[in-house]
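Thread title: Can someone regenerate the structure for this chain?

I was given the following input by a collaborator and told the matching structure tokens would be attached. They weren't. Posting the sequence so someone can regenerate them.
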Amino acid sequence: MTMRPAVGALLLLWGCATSSTTTQRATPPPARPVFLEDDWEEALREAKEGGRPLFVEAWAPWCQSCRSLRATVLTSPALGAWAGRFVWLTMNTDAQSSLPFLRRYPVDTWPTLLVLEPEHGAVITRSLGAVSEPQLLGLLAQAERTFQRGHGDTELLARADELALQGRHAEAAQGYGQALTGLAAEDARRAGTVVSWLKSLSASGSAEECVRVAERELPGLARADDRTRLLYVGMGCALDADTEEARDRFAEEARRGLDAPEDALSPLQRSSLFELSCEAYELAGDTAGLRGMTERWWTFLAAQARHARGAEERAALDSHRVMAAALRDRPDEALALLERSARELPGDYNPPARLATLYAMAGRHDEALASSERALALAPRIARGTVLAGHARILLARGEGARAERLLTEALEELDSTPGMPREHLQRRALEHALQRVRASNAAPAK
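Best answer:
Regenerated them for you:
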């Protein structure tokens, strides 16, 4: 999912991008699903001709949760049993070719997983955020049952999903609440429905209600991976509502979650619990607690790098390594891992963008600018917003505020000339936020 303050602000401060632009996977073994790339209409046609539901993974190049999902869960041999029962599609939401898809299925959480019925493209299942392998298998099983039998008892849930996709989040929140009353505690859909409910409450400005729902529903979730999904969104609502008591309770749950067995959580989910714990210590001003938790996090991230099965899996947690290095105030210690990612993924703009972040944190602004320029040379036009935001902040740190403002202004004008570009596209928001900060800095009196 998208990152929040306060830990998330460490990366947003430098506009760091966190995932790969590569959309072509290595050819998977025949037993595993073969994904169509960024061709929604072709995938829907295949699904209709074959009478199969369409599974869609909507991801973004900057999203570390997406990268982890793609490198681990979506390559699992366990999906082999499902390969021929769905048509499989992956949509890069930062690709210009995805704009027609986004007009029909707006995405505001990354990754978003959808299962569509093939006749009209109606949503059968919608899942927000990264999932573990068991969670994905449960989602597929439930989606197949719904496709075969019709919505039936899922009609309320399907309607709430449609309302959320239309941006009618207050109505969607009511729908999710109603749908949840018909789902048993052991129902595989329950955790995902709660997460969708919380996201719609947050999007409609009901942060306090979001906190209340999260606190009420958390004890009923037996699985560690389900609790982790809820905790991440619930903590965001607690921060928005400025509810210290709820924040502390969620942080305590996150720390308990770190004791879950290794196979109960994906590496990304466990790393996210470290992130939540560090975030809470930082906000509480608990320097000793933050230091100890950050060291545990760094040890975990270093072990994951050593045990990764390839470059993509290793790089999936690089953005978390940047956060942990920043919290430890040791950016140089993460450089070797990021430099390795840059060597192993030479067509990916994100390793040099992350390296620029580390150099900037270390005050090495010339090296940061050079690394950011390499990232910009690799990034596709429509996906350059987050990298440009970081580039502008480096220029600002070098005393080149006017150049930074001009760069961002021109980038926004270029996006405005892109046909079909939604006003709320994340890359536009990243540029607008960065431009606001740069202008404020330029207008501030000189010290």
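Strands lie at 35-37, 54-59, 87-92, 112-116, 123-128.
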